[in-house]
TrEMBL record:
Pfam families in UniProt: DDE_5 (PF13546)
Lineage start: Bacteria, Bacillati, Actinomycetota, Actinomycetes, Kitasatosporales
Record's signal peptide: none
SUPFAM superfamilies hit by this protein: Ribonuclease H-like (SSF53098)
Protein name: Transposase
The Transposase IS701-like DDE domain, residue ranges: 27-241
């Protein structure tokens, strides 16, 4: 086949069967196992909103009950499936990979969804009523995918409110953990499961936490973690304490080196980089990035178990953006944020199945990539298409895996069911509001 055109529907179906076979043993009964398969197929489909209602209709079910039971009451452990997702990603994408930690917000109305409160989320860029999930991604030259998740549970509004916890199904053993602590838990779990990554990266939320940094050092894992410009570091033999942005301003011109932080949508991302030793050995430093156009600065605390080149630190720092791409693909392609659940268990189950769908797309992208090893000197012509992207693969799978056309009577039955359910909900809302008005 021509470069970029390795689309093989039969092979993709076989890969999907293999992915689902990996988690099949985590379901004790055949019914939830079959529903889980239909659920993931629905996440890979082109339905507009990937909630239980639309996924059930896509699967040909008469009602959403089976999908809802899968997320709420069926007997299966989302953490066991998460372990299989992580193993699947490492099998297909493993090799010189970097672990990346970050959080993302899920905007929600009301007060009952587990972990919801008014809090800052980068999803909205402001304080909103939202849930926040902390995620771990794995990125290698072959691809990237999410491999773990933790729902952040605020300390005062949730951890110390037993009634609220009970109402949303938060397990008794779940205690308050900061976001960096949740990140360290996921990193340690990945390492214990056999992940051979040598590096971790993350933004300022994680770089500013000394316990996370010391935990990584104790495991012998190098890190390149972003920190604020006001961070103070010790330099030179006298151990002088200097603020990061002040140190950057004092560096001579020859301290800066222009290097690419990796390929972006518009080509290599070139920045000017400088590094300053901040420890007794050469394994600890402050890495500084400067935008050559705007002069905007970014700072990273770095440590490695052995001496490394500047280019290695630059590569890891540039990899951090891969998790943002994972969030974009997970939300835009497989409905990571399309859920309509409030329960702790339901949140973890939906998120885990969405992670599996994203991991499958990443594996397909690897298998569909053209093999240039047979002719590495072959020039890339302007007429060659780009390699298959995650959105394009999801679009093709949505068409290639689509079931036969739904008969009109089934479409009408779903329309009637939805409108009856919405009428019932409207009456309940009106009744509640009227009662509240009369009480006041």
């Amino acid at each position: 086949m021509a470069v970029g055109h390795s689309v093989d529907p039969a092979r993709w179906r076989a890969m999907f069967d293999q992915a689902m076979a990996r988690i099949a043993g985590r379901f004790r009964r055949v019914e939830p196992r079959a529903t889980a398969r239909a659920f993931v197929l629905g996440l890979l489909s082109g339905v507009e909103r990937k909630n239980c209602w639309q996924l059930a209709e896509q699967a040909g079910h008469d009602r959403p009950g089976a999908m809802q039971r899968l997320l709420r009451s069926a007997r299966w452990d989302a953490d066991e499936v998460r372990d299989e997702v992580r193993s699947y990603v490492l099998d297909h994408l493993g090799g010189d990979g970097v672990l990346i930690v970050d959080e993302t917000g899920f905007l929600k109305k009301g007060l009952r969804s587990a972990g919801v409160q008014r809090q800052y989320t980068g999803t909205a860029g402001r304080i909103e009523n939202a849930q926040v999930g902390v995620f771990l991604a794995y990125a290698s030259p072959r691809g990237r995918a999410l491999i773990d998740r933790r729902l952040y549970l605020p300390e005062h509004t949730w951890c110390r409110d037993p009634d609220r916890r009970s109402g949303s199904g938060v397990p008794e053993q779940v205690e308050f953990s900061t976001k960096p602590r949740l990140a360290l838990q996921m990193i340690e779990a990945a390492l214990d499961a056999g992940c051979s990554s040598s590096w971790v990266t993350g933004d300022e939320v994680y770089g500013q936490d000394p316990q996370l940094r010391s935990g990584l050092e104790a495991r012998g894992i190098g890190y390149v973690l972003a920190v604020a410009c006001t961070t103070k570091v010790r330099i030179n033999e006298n151990r002088t304490v200097v603020q990061a942005d002040t140190l950057a301003d004092s560096l001579p011109r020859d301290a800066w080196h222009r290097q690419s932080a990796g390929a972006g949508a518009k080509g290599p991302r070139y920045y000017d980089w400088a590094w300053v030793q901040t420890g007794a050995d050469k394994n600890r430093c402050l890495l500084i990035r400067r935008n050559p156009v705007t002069d905007e600065l970014a700072f990273y605390l770095c440590w490695s178990p052995g001496e490394v080149a500047l280019s290695a630190l630059v590569r890891v720092a540039g990899t951090r953006w891969c998790i943002e791409e994972c969030f974009q693909a997970a939300k835009g392609q497989v409905g990571l944020d399309h859920y309509q659940v409030r329960h702790w268990t339901s949140w973890h189950r939906h998120i885990t199945l969405a992670m599996l769908a994203l991991a499958f797309l990443a594996a397909v992208a690897v298998s569909a990539a053209p093999d240039r090893s047979t002719d590495p000197n072959r020039p890339v012509h302007s007429s060659d298409p780009i390699d298959l992207t995650i959105p394009e693969i999801r679009h093709l799978i949505g068409r290639l895996f689509r079931p036969s056309t739904t008969p009109p009577h089934r479409l009408l039955a779903w329309s009637i069911w939805r409108r009856l359910h919405q009428a019932q909900a409207r009456r309940a809302h009106y009744r509640r509001r009227l009662t509240s008005h009369l009480d006041t």
